[in-house]
Amino acid sequence: MKEEIISQMEELSREEIREDLFSKAEELKNDYLRECEKLNQEQLQAFMNEGGNPDEFESKKDPRDDRFNELLIILADRERNFKKMKADEVNSRMKAKLVVIAELEKLILEETNIGKAFASFKELQNKWNEIGNVPNREYKNIQSAYHRHVHNFYYNMKLSKDLRELDFKRNLEHRTQLLNKIESLLGLESINGIERMINLYRMEWSELGPTPPETIDELRTRYRELIGQVYQKIRDFYQDRQKQEQENLTAKSALLERVKGIAAENFDNPKQWQTMTETVNHIFEDWKKIGYGPKADNDRIWQEFRKELNTFYNKKRDFYASIKKEQKSNRDRKLQIIEKAAAIASASPESWDEATRQIIQLQKDWKTAGPIEHWEENKLWKKFRESCDKFFEAKKQQFEERDAAQIENLKKKEELITRLEAFQPSGNVNEDLQSLKAFSEEWKTIEHVPFKEKQRIWEKYKTLLDSKYDSMKLGANQKHMLKYRNNVELLAQSEDSGNLIRKEKNNIKDKISKLKATINQYENNLGFFRNAKNMGGLLSEVENNLARAREELKLLEEKLKVFSEA
User: Fold this and answer.
1) DSSP label at residue 531
2) The model's pTM
3) 265-287 in b/e burial notation, b at 16+ Cβ within 10 A?
4) What is the reported pLDDT for 390?
5) 380-387 long-range Cβ contacts below 8 angstroms, 24+ apart
6) What is the number of other CB atoms lying within 10 angstroms of the CB of residue 237?
7) Is 514 contained in some domain?
8) Which of 123, 157, 191 represents a domain boundary (last residue)?
9) Residue 114 sits in which domain range?
10) Which of these, 491, 469, 490, lies nearest to 480 by C-alpha position?
C-alpha cells in the first residue's frame, strides 16, 4: 500500500501543475498517514501480545517514510510556486479586467458607429472572458461594474432586436448547458469533487450574459433548485459522516468501559490472565475496525483507552513477575528434594523402612512445593522420578533376596524345632543344660523369617524350649532364670530388639527401685516391732515379707545382669 501511494506521489511530482493536482496530493498524504497509523497499531498490538509495556513501545523506522517526506517537500515547493504564479495571474487578470471596463466605458461614451461599436464590444467581451476569474472578494464588485456597463452598452447603442435576440439565444444555450453540468454533480460520489466543481459552475453562471426575458424566471428557478439539491447532498454527506462519527464514538466508549472494567480487576492465576488477555486483544481488534470519531473527541478517547490498556498490561507484568519470583523459590525447593532423593537412592540404607518413609515424605513435599514453568516442571519431575524409581527398584530387589533368605531361615528353624522335639534329657543336668544351650546358640545364628511366620515359629520354639527346661530336675529359680535368659536372647534377635530390650530393662530397674523402697520400709518396721511388746505375730510376718523381698531383689538383679551378657 505504501509503495503504491509513493508511486502515485512521484507521478504527481512529474505531472504538469494544475488545480486538482495538490488536492489529489493531499488525499494521498492522508491515505499514507492512515496506513502508517494502521501499521503502527499492528506493531503496538504485537508488542503488547509479547508482554511489552505500551508506554515503552517505539515504532520501527520505515525507510519508505523518508522518500514520502521528500515527495511532500517537492510537492509543497511546487504548490507554493503555483500559488505565487496564480496570485500573479490574478493580479494581472484584475488589472486586465479593469482595463476592459475602462475601454468599455469609453466605448459607450465615445463610439457612435453602431456596427463598429458592436464589433469593438464583442472584442471586449471575448477579451473579458479570456482573462478568466478573479478572487471571490473582488469578484462581486468588478463583475457588477462589468454587467452595468454591458447593460448600458445595449441601451446606449440601441442595438437592433435581431442582434440582441441572437446574443440572448447564445446565452440561453450556455446557461442550459451549465444547468445540465450542475445536475450531473448529483450523481457523483466524491464530495470534494462536487464542492470544487459547484464553485466553478456558480462563477461561470454569474459571468454569462442575459437571456430572453420570458426564460429568466424558469432558468433562475431551475438554477436555484439544482444549487439547493447539490448543497443538500453536501450537507447530507457531512451530516451522515457526523452521525457515523458519533456512532463510532459511542462504540469506542463502550469498548473503553469494557477494558476499563477488566483493567480494574486483579486476577489470581495465569489461566485467568490468559483469558482476559485474549479478551482485551479482541477488544483492541474491534477498536481498530471502528472508524474515526468526532475530531474533538478522537484523541481524547484514544488516550483514555490506551491508559486502560497500560493499566491492564502493567498489572499483568507485575503478576507474572511475582509468579516468576515464586517459581524460582519453588524450583529451589524441588532441586533440594531431587538432591535428597538422589542421595537416598544411591545409598545402601541400614533401614529400608526408614528410607522408604523418607522417600514418601519427599514425594509429599514435591506435591506441596508449588508450581514452576511447565517445561522445567517436566524436566525436574523426570529427574525426581528417576531417583524414586531407582530406590524402589533397589528395595524390591533387596526384599526379593531377603524373602528367599527368610524362607530358607524358616526351614532351618523348623528343622531345629524338630530336633529339639526329639531331644530327651539324659538326667545329667550339666550335659542337658549344655545341649539346650547349644540349641539356643544355634537358634540365634539363624536370622529373620517371613513376618507372617515370625510369631508362630517363635512361640512354638519358646514353648518347646520351656517344656524341655521344665522336664529337667532344676530348682524353681534356676528354671526361671534359664527361661528368662532364653527369652532375652530371643528379644535380642527381633527386628525392634533395641526398643524391646530397653523397655524390659527399664521395667526391671523400676521394679528393683520399688522393691528396695519396700525393703527399706520393712527394715524400718522391723526395728520398731522388735522394740515393741506383744508384736510376736506381726513381727514374724514382717520378717517373712522382708525375706521374700530380698529373695525377689536378688532374682531381679540376676535378671538385670542378663542384659549385659545378651
Assistant:
1) H
2) 0.40
3) eebeeeeebeebbeebeebbeeb
4) 83
5) 380/331, 380/334, 380/335, 380/338, 383/338, 383/342, 384/334, 384/337, 384/338, 384/341, 387/338, 387/341, 387/342, 387/344, 387/345
6) 14
7) yes
8) 157
9) 1-157
10) 469
Q: End of a domain among 157, 192, 222?
A: 157
The reply to whether 90 falls in a domain is yes
Phi, psi for residue 51 in degrees, rounded to 5: 90, 10
**Total structural domains within the chain:** 2
Q: Is 283 helix (H, G, I), strand (E, B) or coil?
A: helix
Interatomic CA distance for residues 239 and 229, integer angstroms: 15
**Residue 259 burial class via C-beta count within 10 angstroms: exposed 0-12, middle 13-18, buried 19 and up:** buried
The three grid cell numbers given for residue 40, joined into one nine-digit string: 503502527
Q: Distance between CA 206 and CA 143 in Å, rounded?
A: 8
Contact present, 465 and 416 (Cβ < 8 Å):
no
Q: Any idea how long the chain is? A: 566
* pLDDT at position 438: 86
Alpha-carbon span 421 to 419, nearest angstrom: 5
Residue with cell string 469506542: 252
Nearest-angstrom CA–CA distance, 123 and 440: 156
Query: Would you tell me how many other CB atoms lie within 10 Å of the CB of residue 486?
Result: 21
Candidates 325, 341, 340; CA nearest to 373 is 325
Asked if 152 contacts 114 with a C-beta cutoff of 8 angstroms, the reply is: no
Count of alpha carbons within 13 angstroms of residue 80, beta-carbon side: 6
8 Å CB contact between 125 and 149: no
Report which of 125, 110, 116 is spatially closest to residue 167, judged by C-alpha positions. 125
- Give the list of residues 6+ apart from residue 170 with CB closer than 8 angstroms, or none: none
For 10, 20, 66, 483, the CA distances from 77, given in Å and listed in that order, are 14, 16, 17, 125
Cell of 419: 530336633
Q: Has residue 150 been placed in a domain?
A: yes
Task: Tell me what pLDDT residue 161 has.
Answer: 56
**CB 262 within 8 Å of CB 310:** no
List average pLDDT for each run of 10 residues in the chain, which is 566 residues long. Answer: 78 74 77 78 75 71 80 79 76 81 78 70 81 69 79 63 74 92 91 90 86 88 93 90 90 91 87 90 90 86 90 88 82 86 82 83 84 82 86 75 78 88 82 81 81 83 80 66 66 64 79 81 70 61 77 74 65
- CA atoms of 466 and 485, how far apart (whole Å): 11
Q: CB neighbours (10 Å) of residue 476? A: 7
Cβ distance 365 to 330 under 8 Å?
A: no
Nearest-angstrom CA–CA distance, 545 and 94: 156
CA pseudo-torsion sign 414, 415, 418, 423: negative
Asked, for residue 1, whether it belongs to a domain, the answer is yes
